[in-house]
TrEMBL record:
Entry protein name: Glycine/D-amino acid oxidase-like deaminating enzyme
Keywords of this entry: Oxidoreductase
Organism: Kutzneria kofuensis
Domain of life: Bacteria
Domain FAD dependent oxidoreductase: 2-356
């Protein structure tokens, strides 16, 4: 079986890896190169803390369980250095600076769904994060939250695909699908299946393939500080982040997210805004992100910003990704619409798609992610 995956971001890479591990011959096509789009503009979040109980949380829990196992297998296959994706199972800390009731209610619903969510006192939060503002009114510790370097994760997955005999074609634009082939600007690639893993551009490719889906870009910006020692130890965010993630509003929304990297830099987010593919870096948005971050970590006021960057998340109106075959075009499959959760959902997404394509028993229920779910494929 020959499968062509369109898109070399983390979702496409995870699908390609899972398919090649299942014995398929895989070609990955990308108009730019590995992790050149949404993946390269992400923070690397692997989260269960920000998801309401339901299908997305179940996919996130499965992915979180599988990621360390997959990395261990890739280390055996590729070597430890080649498979190093800066995986940090450091945990997440969600804090409230106003009424903490909604935060604790949300945590209780998550615990009922099997998430480790430990309600802690502000004093305990200060022990975990000594530089945290003393204005917090409540906190929940999520030990399962983690972080990877997203570009390294995508490229490591693609390295495994290539080592197993697969191909990566960079600078090749997919323009359509015909029976048993992908059409590109460099010619036709015969194949049995095509996987649409184009992220925010998946809607455009799906339309060209004859099976439109309503994927829209949702813009986000991130600030990066100069290296600073031991300022932030966990992924820390304000409780309003959950509401911003779940919101469908087009207007600008910002919520405080602060975390460090192995290099010592601090990443500050997050913003969400539907502005099409306008990639302008908006200074007013950066100011808002900085202001809110300083409120959580006052010492950040003395730290210099090194750079800012942004990207587009693949947004679907019902906030669930599409994973699986498209009944309108035989041989066409989708793996897109993960919005800002793609890094954390990638491993389970790739495995689920490979299971469906090869006829194996799915490890999570695929029905909520079908492209023909009510109202989506219109």
């Amino acid at each position: 079986m020959h499968v062509v995956v369109v898109g070399a971001g983390v979702i496409g890479a995870a699908c390609a890896e899972a398919l090649s591990a299942a014995g398929a011959t895989v070609t990955v096509v990308d108009r730019s190169g590995p992790a050149a789009g949404t993946t390269g503009a992400g923070e690397g979040n692997v989260l269960v803390s920000d998801k309401e109980p339901g299908p997305e949380l179940e996919l996130a829990q499965a992915s979180r369980r599988q990621l360390p196992e997959l990395l261990a297998r890739l280390a055996d296959e590729l070597g430890a250095e080649q498979a190093d994706v800066e995986w940090q199972p450091k945990g997440g800390l969600v804090v409230a600076t106003t009424d903490s009731g909604p935060l604790h209610d949300f945590a209780a619903r998550q615990r009922a769904a099997g998430v480790l969510a430990e309600e802690i006192t502000p004093e305990r939060a200060f022990e975990l994060e000594p530089n945290l503002t003393r204005e917090i009114t409540g906190a929940v510790l999520y030990p399962e939250d983690g972080q990877v370097q997203p570009v390294l994760l995508a490229t490591t997955l693609l390295t495994a695909v290539r080592q197993r005999g697969g191909r990566l074609l960079s600078g090749v634009t997919a323009t359509g699908v015909t029976k048993n082939a992908l059409v590109t600007d460099s010619g036709t690639i015969p194949c049995d299946h095509v996987v649409n893993a184009c992220g925010p551009w998946a809607g455009d490719f799906a339309t060209r393939a004859g099976a439109p889906i309503p994927v829209l870009p949702r813009r986000g910006l991130i600030l990066v500080t100069t290296p600073v020692a031991d300022l932030v130890r966990h992924k820390v965010y304000d409780a309003d982040y959950v509401g911003a993630v779940a919101s469908g509003e087009a207007d600008l929304q910002t919520s405080t997210v602060v975390e460090s990297t192995p290099a010592g830099t601090v990443l500050i987010g997050s913003s969400r805004q539907r502005v099409g593919f306008d990639d302008t870096i908006q200074v007013d948005v950066l100011r808002e992100l900085a202001r809110k971050a300083i409120r959580l970590f006052p010492l950040l006021a003395k730290v210099n910003v090194m750079r800012a960057y942004g990207g587009f998340r693949p947004y679907l109106p019902d906030h669930l990704p599409v994973i699986g075959p498209d009944p309108r075009v035989p041989g066409l499959w989708h793996a897109t619409g993960h919005e800002g959760a793609g890094i954390g959902l990638a491993v389970a997404t790739g495995r689920l798609l490979a299971e469906l394509m090869t006829g194996k028993e799915p490890h999570v229920d695929p029905k909520p992610f079908r492209v023909d779910r009510q109202g989506l494929a219109a």
